[in-house]
């Protein structure tokens, strides 16, 4: 037996070094593996939260899946020459597939949660339709690749109703159609949209609520027949929820966003509408109500009260405060305890003296701004979601409307809208002044093109210099007012940023492995930029699209006009739709019901008949009544003169009976109480002449109610027939 070699008790130093080296390298390997694993975990978590995985098990399987390359080739690498439109969630390109088929390819903005949801929603709803409907734009397929989301639709040669109605056809630059829609086309489009909604509401199981009926979502085929498109905001009505409805998509979206923002809880599914009514006042309605006043100076005061009241409503609830305990800086203007108790607006208890003194001072404007400032960092989503669909940050249509109100109330002495005594003489100037700018606005309506400042310049040149001086003075006032407002906000922000910086610097004393540096860097850049902005305020100017930027001294820069703002708004078409087409009962995360579509249809009908936008704001002095299409049509109905609303471009070449039917029907659809609005089935019957229009409330009718009403109604019918 060989003797066993004993294990060396004291290993040699060489062995120890080798042992130590092996241990250290093994630990390092394990450590790096753990770190890599953690990094991988973090990376996948972060990226998953940005884009939720596409559900391949949905009805989408039946849709054609295109490859990115295929669509890239079809659209010539998404060339600008193939661009046919831009919406809130992405750009649309014309493309030709390998088989020669003409298609419209919608390339959704990447890294946008909203686009992602709209993409999924559109595919789920359109892809889930059991059979296609000729009144709905066909969804041909989609592509999900390399972080890109694309949807392929049938191509509609005459594009959208928005372009057909508002594009300046007399000017050939970028002209789409050389023809103004005649009455027959308009009536057919109204009927088509109504029938498309009838299909969605009555023939789909579960019913589909479109949720975004507006001219840019009505596409026209080669014969100008309409098809409804854009189901990004649509909802499926859940069975058994007839009374309250459920908004799955918004629940999901609000949930996600709340998770991100960590603020303001979404009310649980099943919360009755009434509980939301109290803290919600529709801004557009506030304008409508204000504008419908007959007396213009009274109207002014109403606008002032309502605007502020409405702002306070929105903001007080957004800020998470008790609705009735409005505890805002602008509280001196907003203490109506009962404001939210019903759908009718209750004006705040101001006496005229108080108001006139407010109107004449900047104090009022500052108060309005304070309400905003105070809450600008508060709730950004939820109810506020509709305002912020464009995702463009702080300035969107809320600012636009505020600006507009500001323009109406700020230089009260300058604004003839409020001045009854200037009356007809002013009106003469109105038409003279408005023409070139109006045209400019409409030219710029084309969503394909960026705003064209040259045309504004042209418009300016056409005006005589005297008028222009007065106008630019007025615009400058507006401009300055906004600047002051914004500077206030900026200085507040700068202070806030400073505090954050100090806190951050303190915090960064803790070992941070340089990870915080990138955040600090971007913050510092932002901070520097903000300070710069405040310092260089005299050389800065403000634009809704670009925010504050260095002043360029061109003539068009002086054009701080309603036209410019109106155009800015029209470039974010979804904002316009949102602002003026959305039903008052729908608050962004609420219960979207069929009657919300009916309300939007009502606005759409008025827009089609009149050829005007719902909120038509021009720099030129014009009656506020006319600026707001809905309130104007209500007041015309009240005075028995609804045909005044019909598009002047049609001259007398329209069917008067059909036109008054459409306007009355629209007014019925625009009733504030959803249950009073007609069902889509009835609307189609009314349009087809198979049913009589329901009795409109007294406020929309020149005739007295009850028995007398029916007599006068017969009379009207007789005169129409
Ligand atoms: N199938 C199509 N055929 C032809 N043109 C189209 C088609 N789909 C969209 N377009 C054009 O592209 C434009 C943008 O459409 P998109 O649906 O992206 O946005 P939108 O409806 O204008 O705004 P948002 O998506 O914010 O509601 C439309 O106004 C229309 O001119």
From TrEMBL:
Composition bias, Polar residues: 426-436
Bias (Basic residues): 710-721
Region span, Disordered: 412-441, 702-721
PANTHER family, alphabetized: OS07G0586332 PROTEIN, OS08G0275200 PROTEIN
Transmembrane segments: 17-42
SMART domains xrefs: S_TKc
Organism, scientific name: Rehmannia glutinosa
Annotated ranges, domain Protein kinase: 78-696
Official protein name in the record: Protein kinase domain-containing protein
Residues of the signal peptide: none
UniProt xrefs under InterPro entries: At4g25390-like, Kinase-like_dom_sf, Prot_kinase_dom, Protein_kinase_ATP_BS, Ser/Thr_kinase_AS
UniProt KW keywords: ATP-binding, Kinase, Membrane, Nucleotide-binding, Transferase, Transmembrane, Transmembrane helix
Organism domain of life: Eukaryota
The organism's taxonomic lineage, starting at the top: Eukaryota, Viridiplantae, Streptophyta, Embryophyta, Tracheophyta
């Amino acid at each position: 037996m060989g003797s066993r070699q004993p294990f060396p008790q004291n290993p040699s130093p060489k062995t120890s070094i080798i042992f130590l080296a092996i241990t250290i390298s093994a630990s390092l390997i394990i450590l790096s593996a753990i770190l890599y694993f953690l990094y991988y975990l973090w990376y996948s978590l972060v990226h998953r939260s940005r884009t939720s995985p596409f559900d391949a098990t949905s009805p989408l399987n039946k849709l054609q899946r295109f490859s990115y390359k295929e669509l890239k080739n079809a659209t010539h690498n998404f060339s600008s020459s193939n661009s046919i439109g831009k919406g809130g969630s992405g750009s649309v390109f014309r493309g030709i597939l390998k088989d020669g088929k003409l298609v419209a390819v919608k390339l959704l903005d990447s890294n946008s949660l909203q686009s992602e949801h709209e993409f999924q929603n559109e595919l789920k709803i359109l892809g889930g339709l059991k059979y296609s409907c000729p009144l709905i734009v066909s969804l041909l397929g989609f592509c999900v690749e390399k972080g890109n989301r694309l949807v392929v639709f049938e191509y509609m040669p005459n594009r959208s109703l928005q372009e057909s109605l508002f594009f300046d056809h007399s000017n050939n630059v970028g002209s789409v159609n050389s023809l103004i829609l005649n009455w027959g086309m308009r009536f057919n489009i109204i009927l088509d949209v109504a029938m498309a909604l009838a299909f969605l509401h009555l023939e789909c199981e579960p019913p589909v609520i479109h949720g975004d009926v507006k001219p840019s979502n009505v596409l026209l085929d080669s014969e100008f027949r309409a098809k409804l498109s854009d189901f990004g905001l649509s909802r499926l009505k859940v069975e058994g929820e007839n009374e309250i409805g459920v908004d799955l998509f918004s629940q999901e979206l609000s949930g996600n966003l709340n998770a991100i923002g960590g603020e303001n809880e979404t009310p649980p599914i099943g919360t009755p509408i009434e509980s939301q009514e109290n803290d919600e006042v529709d801004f557009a309605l506030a304008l409508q109500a204000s504008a419908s006043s007959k007396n213009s100076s009274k109207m002014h005061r109403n606008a002032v009260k309502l605007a502020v009241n409405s702002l306070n409503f929105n903001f007080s609830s957004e800020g998470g405060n008790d609705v009735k305990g409005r505890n805002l800086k602008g509280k001196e203007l907003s203490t109506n305890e009962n404001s939210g108790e019903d759908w009718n607006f209750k004006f705040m208890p101001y006496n005229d003296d108080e108001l006139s003194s407010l109107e004449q001072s900047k104090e009022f404007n500052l108060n309005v701004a304070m309400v905003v400032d105070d809450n600008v960092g508060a709730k950004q989503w939820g109810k506020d979601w509709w305002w912020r669909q464009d995702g463009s940050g702080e300035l969107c249509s809320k600012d636009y409307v505020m600006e507009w109100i500001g323009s109406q109330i700020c230089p009260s002495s300058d604004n003839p809208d409020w001045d009854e005594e200037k009356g007809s003489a002013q009106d003469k100037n109105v038409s003279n002044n408005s023409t070139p700018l109006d045209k400019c606005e409409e030219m710029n309506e084309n969503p394909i093109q960026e705003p064209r400042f040259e045309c504004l310049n042209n418009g300016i040149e056409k005006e005589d210099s005297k008028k222009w001086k007065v106008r630019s003075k007025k615009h400058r006032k507006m401009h300055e007012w906004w600047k002051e407002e914004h500077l206030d906000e900026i200085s507040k922000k700068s202070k806030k940023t400073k505090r954050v910086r100090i806190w951050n610097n303190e915090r960064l004393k803790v070992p941070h492995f340089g990870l915080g540096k990138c955040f600090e860097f971007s913050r510092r850049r932002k901070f520097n930029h903000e300070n710069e902005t405040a310092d260089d305020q005299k050389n800065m100017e403000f634009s809704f699209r670009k925010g504050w930027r260095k002043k360029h001294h061109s003539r068009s820069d002086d054009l701080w006009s309603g036209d410019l703002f109106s155009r800015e708004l029209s470039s974010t078409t979804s904002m316009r739709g949102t602002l003026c087409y959305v039903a008052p009962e729908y608050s962004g995360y609420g219960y979207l019901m069929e009657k919300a579509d009916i309300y939007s249809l009502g606005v759409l009908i008025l827009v089609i008949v009149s050829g005007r936008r719902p909120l038509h704001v021009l720099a030129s002095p014009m009656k506020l009544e006319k600026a707001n299409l809905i309130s104007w049509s209500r007041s015309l109905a009240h005075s028995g003169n609804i045909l005044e609303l019909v598009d002047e471009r049609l001259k007398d070449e329209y069917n008067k009976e059909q036109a008054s039917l459409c306007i009355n029907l629209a007014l019925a659809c625009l009733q504030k109480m959803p249950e009073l609005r007609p069902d889509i089935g009835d609307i189609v019957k009314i349009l087809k002449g198979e049913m009589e229009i329901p009795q409109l409330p007294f406020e929309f009718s020149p005739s007295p109610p009850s028995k007398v009403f029916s007599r006068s109604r017969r009379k009207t019918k007789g005169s129409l027939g």
